[in-house]
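Justification of computing resources. Each target in the renewal requires a structure prediction run like the one illustrated here; the chain below, 158 residues long, is used simply to show the kind of job we budget for.
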Amino acid sequence: MLRFAATLVTGFGLFCLGCQTSNTVTTSTPTTTARPPAPGAALFETRWVLRQVGNQSVTVPEGGQEPYLLLRRDGKAEGQGSCNRFRSTAATDSVSHLVFTPLLSTRMACPALPTEQAFTQALAAAHSFRISGDTLRLYAPTEPDATPLARLEAVYLH
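Resulting structure tokens:
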């Protein structure tokens, strides 16, 4: 009988061990994973501020205004050249093609007039675009992989 009781206790003990759950504690070193790239800014309804025309960085001289472009969903384009406001229409497939009709502009003089003229010439010559992150680049039709005509940056108003 004693042998039976010992077998029963051993069996019960093994049964209890089989039912036991363990809380495994694992420690790991946090891995530094690269964040996925930020989604590109929207082409439409974004204020695109001119940062570069051709190879020239854009600085706003005293008395000038920050040049920008705003494309509306209805095809209207408007902006500031630095001295003058302008309007146009833009045809796009929203993927890579972008063409502007001739710009209508006011005719005021200011110290930033050369920058404005380069900007409006870049818009007139634009045929395609690329957005990466918060950067919009405009390209000529014959040079889609060359230096962009203009580089603009999305600026979000809060």
